[in-house]
Model the fold of this input.
Amino acid sequence: MKILGIETSCDNIGISIFDSIKNTFVFNKIFNQLIHKKYGGVVPNLASIHHSNNIYEYFKKTIKKYNININNDIDCIACTAGPGLFGSLVIGSCFSKSLSYSIKKPFYEINHLEGHLLSSLIYKKYNINKIFPFISLIISGGNTKLIFSEKIGNYKIIGETLDDSIGEIIDKIAKKLKLNYPGGPEIYKLSKFGTENIYKFPIPIINNNNLNFSFSGLKTYIINIIDKYKKIDNRLKYNISLELQNTLSNILIKKSFNSLKKFNVKTLLISGGVSSNIFIRKKFKTFFKGKNIKIFFPKIRFCTDNGAMIAYACYMNILYNKYYFPNNKLNIFINTKWSIENV
Ligand code: KG4
Done:
């Protein structure tokens, strides 16, 4: 089976085809929008205008490059239907649905967060019957969530941020340090030159028994530190970047560990754009070494928004979720706040 996956929930257009026989992707193309760099964050209106102006050209260019015959080389289409930005979702869904109608192939709606969550299993060796139950930590531009799952298609949110998402605080602090958008990769690069223990940041609600996160106090604290400097020099950038990653890692590890203990679970899946951070990955691996917990991270290319994770989530549901059906009606379903609990 060959599944075309299309992702447009925010500012990326992701197009990919998953070939289930070969267990590989024919291609996984991600088209970024550079326009947002000058605003230091995604401008929703510009994102949807850019999507509508380009999605057809990107698709045409990609299938030509990989020699795809849309009638013979695609068995079904999977498209992100939420959560995400309204305009961005509408354009991806209209495009994908029209395509599925014209080539007469089944159309599946995919929850963006389920795409992230299952991306950590792509190309990994695991026994599907033994992997459950698991806890997932999704850390991205729009989300910071802990999710408990006993089977594909069945998810319970057990913790989430009460204010900013983790990606938001990284991007806001990066902007304050006059770094490029998105801030995550910049912060990681600069942190390598930082000196440890120059700053000590507060860790909000770390000792609470619940599994929620809060990042806004931490953000304000760091912004206040930066404001005290007349000039943002490299030293400041290096040291803030390092301590920010260190503090965020400690928060994520503590809450993940608490959730594994609370639910008596031995498997942790970590995904989303922020999970591409090598510093955070190393801290997790070091902490969990010898604790009999299996950790899955996605390959770096599947961390930020992409079509491969959408195609893969569709495949996993077709295989293992008996309540999963295509929606071939001509109406468009999108939900900007579609909870992963209601997939
Ligand atoms: O998953 P994603 O592409 O979008 C959402 O679904 O929200 O995540 C984007 C976020 C941005 O905040 C970006 O700064 C962050 O992921 N990010 C990183 C890294 N690469 C991207 N954060 C930390 N380290 C990175 N290497």
Q: What stands out?
A: Residues 10, 140-142, 167, 170-171, 182-185, 188, 272-274, 276-277, 304-305 surround KG4 (CB under 6 Å). Residues 234-263 form the longest helix (30 residues). The chain has two domains: 2-117+303-342, 130-298. The chain has a mean pLDDT of 96.
